Amino acid sequence: MKPRIAVFKFASCDGCQLQFLNAEDELLTLASLVEFAYFTEARSRALDGPYDIAFVEGSITTPDDARRIIEVRERTRYLVTIGACATAGGIQALRNWSEVEQYKRVVYPSPEFISTLSTSTPISEHVKVDFELWGCPIDKHQLIDVVRSLLSRAKPALPGHSVCMECKRRGNVCVVVARGEPCLGPVTRTGCGALCPAYDRGCYGCFGPADDANMEAFTRLMASQGITGMDAVRRLRSINGYVRPWRETADAIAKNQNQND
Amino acid sequence: MNEPLKLKKAALQDLIDLLRREEFKVLGPVVREGSVAFHEVREVSDLPIGMRDAQEAGRYRLTPGVDGEIFGVVNGAGSLKPFFFAPHEILLEVRREHRGFKVRDATPAAPRLALIGVRACDLAALAIQDRIFLHDKFRDAHYEARRKDVFFVAVNCTRSAPTCFCVSMKTGPEAASGFDLAMTEMEDGFVVRTGSAAGERVVSKLQLPTAASEDVAKARARIDECASGMQRQMDTSDLPHLLYDEVDSPRWNDVAARCLSCTNCTMVCPTCFCHSVMDVQELDGNMSRRVRQWDSCFSLEHAHIHGINFRPRIHDRYRQWLTHKLASWIDQFGTSGCVGCGRCITWCPVGIDLTEEVAAIRAQRGKH
Amino acid sequence: MTPYTIHPARITARRTETEGIYTFTMRLLDPSVRAAYRFQAGQFNMLYAFGIGEVAISIVSDPSEPEILEHTVRVAGRVTGVMADWKVGDVVGVRGPYGNGWPVDAARGRDVVIVTGGLGCAPVVGLINYIIRRRDEYGELHILHGVRTPNDLLYREKFDEWRRVPRTRVYLTTDQPDKSWHYRIGVVTELFDELNVAPSAIVMMCGPEVMMRFAAHALLQKGIGDDSIHLSMERRMECAVGLCGHCQYREHFVCKDGPVFTYRTVRRLFGVSGI
Amino acid sequence: MPSRRTKTRTINVSNLARVEGEGALHIRLRGGEISELKLEIFEPPRFFEAFLRGRDSREAPDLNARICGICPVAYQMSTVHAFERLYGITIDPAVRALRRLYYCGEWIESHALHIHMLSAPDFMGCDSVITLAEKDRAAVERGLRIKQLGNAIVAKLGGRSVHPVGACIGGFTRVPRREELAELREALMRERDDALECVRWVARFDLPAVERDIEFVSLRHPDEYPMNEGRIVSSRGIDAAQDEFDAWFEESQVPYSNALHSKIKARGAYFVGPLARINLNFDRLGTEVQSAARQTQIAWPSSNPYTSIVARALEVLYAIEEALRIIDTYEPPSAPAAKFELRAGTGCAITEAPRGALYHAYETDERGVIRSARIVPPTSQNQARIEADLRELIPQLIERSHVEATRACEMAIRNYDPCISCSTHFLRLEIER
Ligand SMILES: Cc1cc2nc3c(=O)[nH]c(=O)nc-3n(C[C@H](O)[C@H](O)[C@H](O)COP(=O)(O)OP(=O)(O)OC[C@H]3O[C@@H](n4cnc5c(N)ncnc54)[C@H](O)[C@@H]3O)c2cc1C
Ligand code: SF4
Ligand code: SF4
Ligand code: SF4
Description:
The complex is a heterotetramer.
Chain A: E1 4-9, H1 15-22, H2 27-33, E2 35-38, E3 51-57, H3 63-74, E4 76-82, H4 83-88, H5 100-107, E5 131-133, H6 140-151, H7 163-169, H8 175-179, H9 195-198, H10 215-224, H11 229-236, H12 246-260
Parallel strand pairs in A: 1-2, 1-3, 3-4, 4-5
Helix pairs in contact in A: 11-12
Chain B: E1 5-8, H1 12-21, E2 25-32, E3 35-40, E4 51-56, E5 59-64, H2 81-84, E6 88-97, E7 100-105, E8 113-118, H3 120-133, H4 141-147, E9 151-155, H5 166-169, E10 181-185, E11 189-194, H6 197-206, H7 213-228, H8 239-245, H9 251-258, H10 264-268, E12 275-281, E13 287-294, E14 304-305, E15 308-309, H11 314-333, H12 343-346, H13 354-363
Parallel strand pairs in B: 2-8, 8-9, 9-10
Antiparallel strand pairs in B: 1-11, 2-3, 4-5, 6-7, 6-13, 10-11, 12-13, 14-15
Helix pairs in contact in B: 8-11, 9-11
Chain D: E1 8-13, E2 23-30, E3 33-41, H1 48-51, H2 60-65, H3 72-87, H4 93-123, H5 129-135, H6 137-158, E4 167-168, E5 171-172, H7 178-182, H8 185-203, E6 217-220, E7 231-234, E8 239-240, H9 245-248, E9 249-253, E10 260-264, H10 274-281, H11 287-294, H12 308-328, E11 345-353, E12 356-364, E13 370-376, H13 378-393, H14 402-414
Antiparallel strand pairs in D: 1-2, 2-3, 4-5, 6-7, 7-8, 9-10, 11-12, 12-13
Helix pairs in contact in D: 3-4, 4-5, 4-6, 4-12, 5-6, 6-8, 8-12, 11-12, 13-14
């Protein structure tokens, strides 16, 4: 029997699950190898499980979703988070530093009808996650590699070093050194193919923190480029801002800033 | 033979044309993204004429230079390394067949390269990579295929960047070997020497005149001046022992606090050779490629084995890098792993400078 | 042909040693590659699982019959995890042999001490078998093995079998005994109290570096020279031909200068963390 | 509560499939009357308009892209144009052309996705593109090729197709060399034929023949088919500048739900998207596309919402032709992006997202930090219209089986290609009283 794959969505933009459909060259092959048992963006029929692999997109922001992810976990053999929302809480985790009630008032005239949690949290804060795919959005090739590995009954190989290595392999010139651009590359996880420097700009961290990022040294590098205080906080508190060690570094800078004010 | 010749500036185009006619792909320093790297050159005007580079630890800028000077930019982020040791390449293709599989070597498409504007340190670095990939127990067929039949036009340095220290490493500023032609730039042209039969053939086709003795003397003086004026130095005396003995130097912690472990220094270094080997399958599971790509001892995965990481701290990884470069490389390959090009200094985003680190380790030797 | 070229081999037998440890016998498919293939005790091959990757695995079969390749694999991670599914008849990849092997020639006529620790150290299995098959050519054989818990003792029957071989002694110990344990208790170095060997003995070790460091100390105390103590080192390996750089141990490449080193060679490095 | 006297029926579509984002539809009928209509949006709010406050305006193009993974270019384009007005930036004509190209890429990608993967299975009686491929592999492969081209165009300018990184206020971070753009030419030529074939294919679908009384709204530009610029026009006479959006449109709460619906003041529901654009800009399509449109046997302007799928296919063809034109006349700009000074001010912009007009409005302080942000996505504008369509459709479904009724409702919703992820504004609809 073909392995049964499910794709679930929580709070997200759909961009990560879209990468399945963006794999134009592989899509029909994929469909011949697996059964999409649940993938509402692509298929009307929805089966209840159990699933061999569940790809989970999106973060947990409502009480319902906090319950739903537990059900998903129970019906799933391998649970793989796809993207910054599911893996790190996503851009919507910016609410975690604010009053969500105030956020509701900003957006909705009748905030009392909004049912939402005060935080946006990654899936791993709710259930056990087997593999994490970083990125906002995830990289299509990494996604295909993970599917292929799991079909071959092998653990996926997901590197955790910084963007810089891929950047130089690609023949980019370092934007920090040659142009003084701020760049999160040295502390950001590889996976995107070093896109931003190839497009003449600094990395803004959409693949989350690299393993063993030296945040103290990086904070000093930012400061040497004139990025201090809330400017530095904003750089770290973005798409993957809720994940350590970026969260801790930004919180520490923010705290310092408040004390100085 | 080997008498210095003169190539007028205007005739540099003839050299390029001749090489192109002989079916070389001619590469030279070309401005890209705020730096120079070796790219295809068809016209002399593709070269960074009238430009110079301003380099310091952690900073690189191209600046207006001297009018008409063709090789005013000393070097950029791109070394020769990617042309022979590719950043990313397919080594094998393995295809499923019946109950087994069939393996095919993927031979690289290697264009015939002519490289102009190559510096002494670049050639020295290439000789080191040759030592690693060609003269060891195992020869690397892909490197070998790319390395064959390359034509090198070296340029002797008459100006150094503040990050250069080739004099300390005895690799420059004058190209000693490994070139077909070596040129020294003057206001009106180049003093040219040949370094190989292929170089001889080329100059005879160009019918270059003999250089005037004043020109030859002036060229010599320029190179000497460059050497004596070099701003950076590294004391290499007793080098393997210094680093071997100072395995516990407090400086390792000091530099580890500054180092981002980003791998930039190893990526731009013209001699670093570490690479990872991966097998990447197509989705249908019938075909797999063995891929190799540049790796670095600064990545956490580099020293990871199942259940243990031998170099978990940045302290360990920086020490590995510096010790390998300057010390254990000598035991392994009979030569230092550093040619003094200064790239790792310039292109380190936080400006860590190995000459300074070595000096500090030396200064604290045995005192802790 | 690049040094990375893989040679297909067919699995002819599979044996489960214990949960998670399997021994595969295999035969190279290409007759000319097979005919040219020679190895020494202690050398290793890079074994390839289609599409997944390659890992270093010691050859445990007998060098005098180079057409038969036997490998004992312990399931650890991505690649070895897939190897657990290998069946008789499957075609897998082999390249090698690599590394320097055990000093079986230098050991001839001498007492041999074999020290291992941790989870079943496959490389020494081949070595012990090698000596036992040529029992007359060697002196006393002492096999010392330390495990953390009795469950980690993976080849209980093998040790019992070796115990019965003439002029062979087996010493077992554990840190955390249970009721089933009727050997010694304590770390492996404590076994050296019992060990009675001539200073001319040759030692071969394989296991965690801390264990080997303490063992080497104890053996030096017994007057064994630091160049008579041989240790098998482990470092990450991706090419096995000294090019990829991962297996560096300061100036050594474990793949081509090792994996077996004398204690004299690595003495200064042993015990420095982060090398 | 079901009544004993009258026949009660409920139609529950617990998961709206093949729309972007997650939603459900709940309808209760009593007799022939709708007693309940609940378009439930699971999509939890993500509060973009709230967290944008306090961010640097230069971050906004990257942050806003994350509103929607299917049309990030649209969010970037409305963002940059709004801030360019705010900062008084003039855009180099070459950059302007590249932005059109960028949008062409997204239209091609998004429309191809919708036509082949979301919508066509309905008409072919399949549950997904995967089963559709078993029936008509050639059509699916053609769709994938077209889609791939769209992605390639976006990636050429922005590095990747989802959340591309190249767009910034003032232009692009990097612009392609001529020869880099020319690399797209071959694929564009090939896909032009595919797009034409696709138009013929969808025109043969058995589209329900309905006529609806609809007010269509889109941008209109003096001499181009609208994308990034133009005035707001409607089929009932609106002709307004972009900054008059608030004078004509309002977001309100409808009595039976808590959702914000955008409506034309004093008139109500309206329709944005490809069908609105074609209806209002047929004369700007160029002769090739016009003739393809005429061959479909549909009378343009069309008041049948089901012809949206044909409008989409025609826009794919248009975007391919437009992309070819831009590539062939491209000269790189002198700088990838215009320089500008940050300042305090307000600015708004509407651009034509694949799904229709997308309105953004911002206010900044003197350091260029965002003080307020307002985003009105096309789906939110179409929502009242979707519900109006459902109200007209449902009485005809009473005698149909559940499966058929569900399918009919989903098809009606899919006409609008709703992108529920763009839920800057969506609420859960609750109808129980
Ligand atoms: C000389 C030598 C001989 C060996 N002999 C045997 C043997 O006979 N039987 C046996 O079971 N194991 C042996 N090993 C260990 C074996 O190579 C590892 O268990 C194996 O590489 C783990 O790979 P993995 O992909 O399953 O693990 P993962 O943890 O997923 O490792 C990923 C990658 O890291 C590298 N790696 C991880 N662990 C090691 C390691 N210990 N040594 C080298 N590279 C590693 C490999 O490239 C591997 O593919 C030997 C190792 C060496 C160096
Ligand atoms: S170590 Fe630094 S200075 Fe030495 S060769 Fe490498 S990059 Fe150049
Ligand atoms: S070990 Fe480090 S310093 Fe040595 S070659 Fe490899 S990357 Fe370079
Ligand atoms: S020395 Fe500099 S370039 Fe090298 S890893 Fe450390 S921070 Fe990066």
